[in-house]
Amino acid sequence: MKVVRHQGVSVAVDHPAVWFEKGEQIVRDLIEILTHHDVSRDSLRHLIASRRRLARGRYRAADGRGCLMSILTERLPAHKQIHGKADLVRFFGRGASPLAAEHSAEYQPAKWLVRLVDGQFCRELRRRYGRACELFDYEVVLEVARQVLALRDAVETTLRPRSLVVANAASGAARGQETRGQETRGQETRGQETAPARRTSRE
């Protein structure tokens, strides 16, 4: 089993594609894609649950199947879903223009993974992934997705109690201030009620 560490994320993958030289690059690229800030935990769960719908060679098939990027973004708002190359560049690329985004470093993992999934074993793809190209299948994707999801669930579980404590403390402080304000107003009212009436000059 190979442990791959990238951008603070560690995943353990037991798959022939990762055993060969440059196979780890596939996992690193998957980590880049699956930890993207617009990819939600629900997106990861949907991808894992849609194993039988994953297809190769096209973004979306007539029978409802789709490629990795299409299925991954299927639960996102319509303007963030990926149905073609232009959507892919817009989602993952960074730059002032579509051309700049297509050549940005952020776009490269998505670009090469799409070619890998589609079986476009060109010279450039083999330079990036080596012999791992021929052994790749969707099980690598799903294994990395499961572990990334587990890590994100663990982080959410850890952060949620703290956020609740902060929220409850803030709410309690607000209620305390409100109560003290009410007590102060009550004291002022009682003071006005017990104060002796001022005698007028006519008396």
Description:
- 58% of the residues lie in helices and 5% in strands.
- The protein contains nine helices and two strands.
- The protein has helices spanning 16-19, 23-34, 41-49, 68-72, 85-92, 98-102, 108-117, 123-129, 138-194; strands spanning 2-6, 9-13.
- Strands 1-2 form a two-stranded antiparallel ribbon.
- A hairpin with a 2-residue loop joins β1 (2-6) and β2.
- The chain starts with a strand and ends in a 9-residue tail after the last helix.
Mean pLDDT: 84
State the distance separating the first and last CA atoms: 102 Å
Main beta sheet strand tally, sense and closure = 2 strands, antiparallel
Overall shape: it is: globular
Structural class: mainly alpha
**Low-confidence sequence ranges:** 197-203
Key phrases:
mainly alpha, two-stranded antiparallel ribbon, 2 strands, 203 residues
Short description:
By secondary structure, the protein is mainly alpha-helical. The protein contains 9 helices and 2 strands.
Write the layout of secondary structure elements.
Elements: E1 2-6, E2 9-13, H1 16-19, H2 23-34, H3 41-49, H4 68-72, H5 85-92, H6 98-102, H7 108-117, H8 123-129, H9 138-194
Antiparallel strand pairs: 1-2
Helix pairs in contact: 2-7, 2-9, 3-9
